[in-house]
Amino acid sequence: MTSRLSPFRSPQPPEVHLERPPLVQVIAQVRFPPILALGRQESVAPFQEAIRRRYPILRPESVPERLLLGVDGPVVQPSTMLWRFHDKDDVWRVALTTNSISLQANKYSSRADFFERLHQLLDELVRVTDPVAAGYERFGIRYVNRVRHPELEHLSRMVQPEVLGVANIGFGPELIFSVCESSFAVDDAQLRARWGLLPPRATTDPTAIREIDESSWILDLDMFVEKQPEFDASVVVERGQRFAETIYAFFRWCVTDEFLRTYGGQV
Hints:
Blueprint: E1 23-31, H1 41-51, E2 57-63, E3 66-70, E4 73-77, E5 80-86, E6 92-97, E7 100-105, H2 111-129, E8 136-147, H3 155-158, H4 161-164, E9 178-186, E10 189-198, E11 216-228, H5 233-254, H6 257-262
Antiparallel strand pairs: 1-7, 1-8, 2-5, 3-4, 5-6, 6-7, 8-11, 9-10, 10-11
Helix pairs in contact: 1-2, 2-5
């Protein structure tokens, strides 16, 4: 087999627009040290007003106290409020808690649109709570792709053989589940890549990959950085854009031109 260059050491591939992208979800999340004021309605009200034109629907939830098992033993996570905002079509979602904010796109239009929306949310969060001095604990960008029938029947032509793994050997209907996970250090960040074949009603992460009634193949790419000393919206968004470029390079390394053509790309 001819070896291929690592996607982390190759020139950035040109973007190919897909008319019918297999992206099912794109998520950005920033976690920061707890700001207890974000658990109170009166503190969140200015944030809601600032984003209400884009995300007019608010659905608050009370998250009960939970016992989590950490590396140092059990940890009690106190009850808190989860403020969920979304647009009228439930395409764009925002989730705000006392220690995190996330943006989720269920129908991704463009990188520019996504990061412009993220910038607005972070600007408003900084204006309302000023988390700058404490920095942030984790920032990540995640792209989830899913191949379903009838495209799944042609997977061997759409995905590079080294990525397909045992799904390319010819087990046929005997193979019902095969998922690979790899982590890569990219400068001061990490890229966690997970891909593989899922049977009906299966998921590797119910928060991002919903269960469906048919087999599918997923490519789940999550790039993140931890423990940064300063929370600056522009710097965070710029870093997120670089993450998206790296994720796209890895995506292109995983798939063939046939994959791009199948989903409406001109190559």
